[in-house]
Write a structure and sequence with these properties.
Length: 384
């Protein structure tokens, strides 16, 4: 086949898409079974809830099955009503997403194109660069401070082309969080023609006194969008449901480009039930804080540096190639997340699991670290 024909469909794609590296999700359990022939796999790779799904959510899904042949309520009235109550906002301030990832994408489609610039921090959530790249916008990547967002540097880095700023609080994969005072100061100084998204996917887990959700600033800043998800503390990652909170004007715009039925019937029903199941969320947060303490204690004992985290995961420095340790863990039936694509080649991110899962992970990590040795530089060998 002549080369031009072979490369034709590729070259037809937008330049941004041609240069796009797709999102690398955590390895699915079934894939590891298939590829490595291992069993009893512990997956701590995607920040999923180790308690599973609330029983109330399961019951809500069962109850919705008889109407599975009908389109869902495109306005998601029932779920929005529950969310409006929870957040003390109007229904007109809520945008439902097929996961909060969907809301992030809707924001980009609403406010930016290839002539614009989108700003995010170094080490920030991988979806922000992907959305930026897909539309061919300029990446304005602001260096981090102690692995976290440097809000002052972000304000300084604003240019005339900056249209959207993404901020994850807490951030994934670093787990770093921003304090309320700093957010308020940032919003105060932010030009009103820039849309800022504060991504609070891990809000339920944060237990830091100086932290507060940015939701209280919604009335004051019409250019502020907050995203939340049911994928993490609510345990509904497989159902794909999240939402955005914003001013009525911005919400109106977001809902123009939203797919009409982006929240499916089962996800809507489960989310509404999960939202009311306070016991389940409380239990999830408790398991997480216990597990976080357990892993921190083990990392300290093993002499491994970690980045203190406010989420349901923690990134730690293995002092050698993270990918090699990741592979060694796979052979021991443990799936964690390599963060090389984030330019953190010596780190791995592990999701907090149940006590027994965390124990298995630590045992496997000890073995993996004695198998994968740090690379000794040739100069160091010469000195001996
Ligand atoms: C997990 C995560 C999300 C949520 O994604 P969903 O599409 O809602 O499953 C959003 N932002 C960050 C920073 C995350 O880590």
């Amino acid at each position: 086949m002549p080369k031009s024909v072979e490369t034709l469909p590729y070259s037809l794609a937008l330049p941004g898409v041609q240069a796009l590296t797709p999102y690398a999700p955590g390895k699915p359990i079934a894939e590891l079974e298939r590829e490595y022939g291992v069993t009893n796999i512990v997956k701590l790779a995607s920040n999923e809830n180790p308690l599973g799904m609330s029983l109330k959510a399961k019951q809500a899904i069962s109850a919705a099955i008889p109407e599975g042949h009908l389109y869902p309520d495109g306005n998601a009235y029932s779920l929005k009503k529950a969310l409006a109550q929870r957040h003390n906002v109007e229904l007109e301030q809520i945008t439902i997403g097929n996961g909060s990832n969907d809301v992030l994408e809707i924001v980009v489609r609403c406010f930016a194109d290839a002539s614009c610039e989108i700003m995010y921090s170094a080490y920030a959530f991988a979806v922000y660069p992907i959305l930026t790249q897909a539309i061919g916008a300029r990446h304005n990547i602001v260096p981090a401070k102690n692995w976290g967002h440097d809000l002052d540097a972000m304000l300084h880095a604003i240019t005339e082309k900056t249209k959207i700023i993404f901020i994850a609080n807490p951030n994934n994969p670093t787990g770093t969080w921003l304090v309320d005072n700093d957010i308020q100061r940032f919003l105060n100084q932010l030009p009103e023609n820039i849309t800022v998204v504060i991504d609070e996917a891990y809000h339920e887990y944060i237990a830091k006194a100086e932290y507060a959700s940015a939701e209280k600033y919604l009335t004051q800043y019409p250019n502020l969008i907050i995203t939340r998800t049911f994928s993490k503390a609510y345990g509904l990652a497989g159902l794909r449901i999240g939402y955005g909170l914003a001013s009525p004007a911005v919400t109106n715009l977001l809902n123009r480009v939203r797919q009409p039925f982006n929240g499916n019937s089962f996800a809507l029903a489960a989310a509404e039930a999960a939202l009311q199941d306070n016991d389940f969320v409380r239990q999830s947060v408790q398991v997480n804080s216990d597990g976080m303490q357990q892993l921190e204690t083990e990392f300290i004992r093993m002499g491994l540096d970690y980045i203190p985290s406010a989420g349901n995961f923690i990134s730690f420095d293995v002092g050698r190639n993270g990918n090699d340790v990741y592979e060694a863990l796979l052979r021991r039936s443990i799936i964690v997340r390599p963060v090389g694509p984030y330019k953190m080649p010596n780190h791995l991110r592990v999701s907090i699991g149940l006590k027994s899962q965390n124990e298995k992970f630590i045992r496997a990590l000890q073995e993996a670290l004695s198998e994968v040795l740090p690379k000794v530089l040739p100069e160091a060998l010469n000195e001996k």
